[in-house]
Design goal:
By secondary structure, this protein is of the alpha+beta class. It is built from ten helices and seven strands. The model has no long low-confidence stretch (mean pLDDT 83).
Length: 259
Amino acid sequence: MRYATREIRLASALVEAADTLVEGFEAIRYLQRVCDHCVELLDARAAGVMLIDGGRSVSLAAGSRHEQVALDLLEAQHGGGPCLDSYGSGEPVPPVSIRVAHADARWPDFTERALRHDIVTTFAVPLRRREHLLGALNVFVPTLPDTTPADGVTSELHVAQALADAAALGLQNRGAYAQYRDLSGQLQAALSSRVRIEQAKGMLAERWSVRTDEAFMALRQYARRHRLPLDQVARAVVEGVADDAELRREGGTRADGPA
């Protein structure tokens, strides 16, 4: 029953991790929530995510439980640690005894700090989407791993990797969504600008009894002379606040019609 319950909780966590296409999304808060799920599902003391770009840490996030412990242990990995090893290889770092690693001088700064925080075991999994690596998820456990068949080390790594994969997918989807939304906004702005310019051309052509290309020339000449965006001049015409006499001079027209 315990493992069935964990499977349900894991499924719920994975669904939540996929929900990134929302207003007000914040990457750090999102990763903190992923870490919270990791702590709950794996009975860990703390968990954290290190986002890495070009081999260097660019951002840290930790779950709400023992957040400062996790952040401290992530920061201690500047000289090496589970996160950098997992990111460098693209593979999980299986559970490691902190005392054994410290005795072997493996990650000395990290293991020394981990011992001070009473961390007994640590492991890490890569945060990746296909071949694209974003960083690593690091789990800090206060006990030695239970390697019984029902709850083996492989199972713990699989749970952590599933959460890390879901987080990477969520972040990638959010990035793509933001990029397309920005592009959509730019296209909409360009379309709106074009519509205003066409509207201004038509209004001036009708008012001056000239061709639309002559009206457009007046708009463009005025914009160039005053170093203004063409769309800004067109908006002024549409809103009825443009200097009509000066626009006429730019187009070579008189008040009673074409010159």
